[in-house]
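dumping this here before i forget
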Amino acid sequence: MTPHRAPVRILVCDDHAVVRAGLLALLDSAPDIEVVGEAGTGEEALALAAKLTPDVVLMDLQLGEGIDGVETTRRLTSAPGSPLHVLVLTTYDTDADITRAIEAGATGYLLKAERPDELFAAIHAAAEGRTALSPPVASRVMANLRRPRPTLTDRERDILAQLARGIGNRDIARALHISEATVKTHLRRIYDKLGVDTRAGAVAVAKERRLVP
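structure:
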């Protein structure tokens, strides 16, 4: 006879009430999984996690107002002696999103298109501290590991540092004594190297990799 195992205690964090309701209904049908709380913001997830001590936090990346899923993940997993694990459940599968989440401490990264049984299996894996990745995510991670990490030139680092301070292209050009067109050229190269397509994405990845203060 198989011994009964304690259910995995789950906290769901997603800013869409309809999505949360769907997840709760789905998880309620799963054996050995118990939803102990739900949060609509990162701040709420932090407060509830401290109060409810779940085994796994099911985390969306984009949370609207307040801190995002990556920062929430970092705070949840960096707490001294924290036993909980974060399983990202999102629609976003860009290299930058995956890298940021994993570097922030996420145990797993799942896409919302996964089948319910895959989600249940990933939750149990995360509860045991085992990595759980959707196949497309795993492929991207492996490809990135095989690919040498691009290095930024000194000029690109200078521009990235200015970017992190929230300075626009024109002011960056003035500060570095170069043309605005040159700034734009460097920005395109920075985006390509960091695997992002926005200024905010470049700054976020740069901070994750400690390329800027």
